[in-house]
Automatic annotation (TrEMBL):
Family, per entry: Belongs to the peptidase C15 family.
The keyword Hydrolase is assigned to this record: yes
Reactions accelerated catalytically: Release of an N-terminal pyroglutamyl group from a polypeptide, the second amino acid generally not being Pro
A GO cellular-component term linked to this record: cytosol
Active-site residues from the entry: E81, C144, H166
Entry's EC annotation: 3.4.19.3
Pfam families: Peptidase_C15
EC class: hydrolase
Top-level lineage group: Bacteria
Family annotation (HAMAP family): Pyrrolid_peptidase
Protein name as it appears in the record: Pyrrolidone-carboxylate peptidase
The organism of origin for this protein: Pseudomonas karstica
Length: 215
């Protein structure tokens, strides 16, 4: 049985829930096909432990593909991340009360890593299903980016494809985001993640389609 590892985060910043975890846990044990199973795990929202936990999960599950997910409070759509940067710069303390400023994720590591997932094909599949989605050019500088960078660093040079998806808050957390757009219900987020994972698994070469931004 081949494995896709899917991770979400515990709640943070005094919120009782984290939509990334609420969504991914619905997919635990799902079969993408007869010999491909999704395994779901929760990561701590803490700089000191998230990367360590992720590395242990990679060693435990030996997955053929990994997609980490996290909550983006100000967004209203599924954001397929393009790049992780080697920088921690926390706007707020993490769940252990730590707030690193201008520190590297991996000392001496590359400035950045790109996702090895077919990010534009994933966005297209979600949009065709009526689920708002876009390519994102920044995963921030909080624990989400740290996990994304740590993931790509750990798997660099391997055949395991990996990347990161940001999901919006749930409607019960707020009716709209700062952009003024309505939020995605949990069922839509779950289906969006399922489709994104399936598309990533089945697509080896990404499509040539615009996904850039002017600013």
């Amino acid at each position: 049985m081949r494995t896709v590892l899917l991770t979400g985060f515990e709640p943070f910043d005094q919120s009782p829930v984290n939509s990334s975890w609420e969504a991914v846990r619905q997919l635990d044990g799902v079969l993408l096909m007869d010999d491909v199973r999704v395994v779901v795990e929760q990561l701590p929202c803490a700089f000191a432990t998230a990367g360590v936990c992720l590395k242990a999960l990679l060693d435990e599950h030996r997955p053929q593909m990994v997609i980490a997910t996290g909550l983006a409070p100000g967004r209203s759509e599924m954001s397929i991340e393009r790049v992780a940067i080697n920088l921690n710069d926390a706007r707020i303390p993490d769940n252990l009360g730590e707030q690193p400023i201008d520190t590297p994720v991996v000392p001496g590591g590359p400035a950045a890593y790109f996702s090895t997932l077919p990010i534009k094909a994933m966005v297209q599949a979600l949009r065709e299903a009526g689920i708002p989605a876009s390519v994102s050019q920044t995963a921030g500088t909080f624990v989400c980016n740290q996990v994304f960078y740590s993931l790509q660093h750990a798997l660099a040079g391997s055949t395991v494809r990996s990347g990161f998806i940001h999901v919006p808050p749930l409607p019960e957390q707020a009716t709209r985001t700062v952009s003024g757009q309505p939020l995605l219900a949990l069922a839509a987020q779950v289906e969006g993640l399922r489709m994104a994972v399936l598309t990533a698994w089945n697509t080896r070469v990404d499509i040539a389609q615009t996904g850039g931004q002017i600013s």
